[in-house]
Amino acid sequence: SVPVKLQVWDFTLPQTPAIRSGFGISMNSIKRYHNLNTLSEEKEVFDYYMRSFRDYRISPYTPFQYSPIKEEVKGVPWKGGFFDSRQKHGGTYSYKVVDNSSTSHIEPMSFDLTPVGSKNSYSLIWYSRSDTDDQEYVAGLECFNAEKKLLVFENRIDRFTAGKTWEPDTLNIGKLNEEVRYVRVKLFPSNRTRTGENKGTVWFDDMTLINSETGLNEFSAGNFEVNLNDIDIELDFTEFNKAGKKYFDEYGFTGYRLDLKGLGGGTFYSREAGVFEGFEQGTDEYNRLMERYLGQMQENLKKNGWLGREYIYWFDEPNEKDYPFVRETNAMIKKYAPGITTFLTEHVSGQDITDVTDISCTIWHRLDHEKIKKLNDKGLQHWSYL
Q: Phi-psi bin for 84: left (phi > 0), alpha (psi -120 to 50), beta?
């Protein structure tokens, strides 16, 4: 027998912790560790991990791994490049295609398949230009059958050269195999090789697919025009909201990392600007689309009582030179969704963008207590990390 003297205090731990946290979790590591082979196994084990987070009263980065917000954007005829209103041969936009990496694979394409007939001859005609002389690039058609299955050996693709002025180019296609019922245009801004070392930038405009028998253009997306009013941003929160009720209302998670479409990113090593469906950050079109997108995000979180649980962690440890860029993006988020929480890991002294950043987070040995006090006086949070 062991003598025990016990004093019981009259309180119960709250279901939601007072302290906020964000802990990483890697499903790739978990799948390897547990030898998971199917999606159902992944979801089952993931749920056990979420319960463990709940039991230890800490919050994961990504509780919505298997219940994301479903995003669909309709009304954009091209993907993979940029609509450019500054360089154009005609109309409002040209299409800029950029390859600035020897390791990535850049291949913009028309979004919808275009129906064609096998009894007619075709020619693909367009204008192109580059920012250098003698820029080699590749363009052509992918071919599909009646079931819209790719017919690889029927593709018609060739190599061309662009210069610093707009010049016409033509791909003589001739008659297509009778199995071909649809085509899709694909564009490559540099010559394709097995090692992929080539780079470059090419603009395309006024592209037509001419039926040689009728003389008519059968490709409606080749002028690269797009009306923002025709772009429909559809966000389906069904699975996200269902999971949110469990993770926030039942498990008591105090935060999570919310990824936003269209944001750029980077670290003190390098950075890249945001792009929303082919419109680059800094353009009026980008801002108008982000306004519609961010408004839906904020409204759903507010309606469910979860606004403020999220944090937008999109840039990591900026150097002094990065702060204007970080400020620009955070200011854009705050302009169109002022209630959404912006977050920044930072350790460069003398920088202050707390007017557009809700949470400043620094590495443990760089804590600046004077800055922390200023943040707290403004009602803002300061986090630290290891």
A: beta
pLDDT tens-place string over residues 44-77: 999 999 999 999 999 999 999 999 999 999 999 9
Q: How many Å apart are CA 226 and CA 223, to the nearest integer?
A: 9
Vertex 202: Cα angle to 201 and 205 (nearest 5)? 150
Residue type, 78: W
CA 200 to chain centroid, in Å, comes to: 22
Pairing mode of beta strands 182-188, 200-211 = unpaired
pTM score, whole prediction: 0.90
Question: How far, in Å, CA of 162 to CA of 325, rounded?
Answer: 32
Name residues whose C-beta falls within 8 Å of residue 321's C-beta, 6 or more positions apart in sequence: none
The one-letter amino acid code at 240 reads F
Tens digit of each residue's pLDDT (9 = 90 or more) over 7-39: 999 998 887 888 899 999 999 999 999 999 999
Euclidean distance between CA atoms 197 and 118, whole angstroms: 37
Whole-number Å distance between alpha carbons of 45 and 53: 13
β-strand pairing of 359-363 with 381-385: parallel
User: Is residue 313 within 8 Å of 256, Cβ to Cβ?
Assistant: no
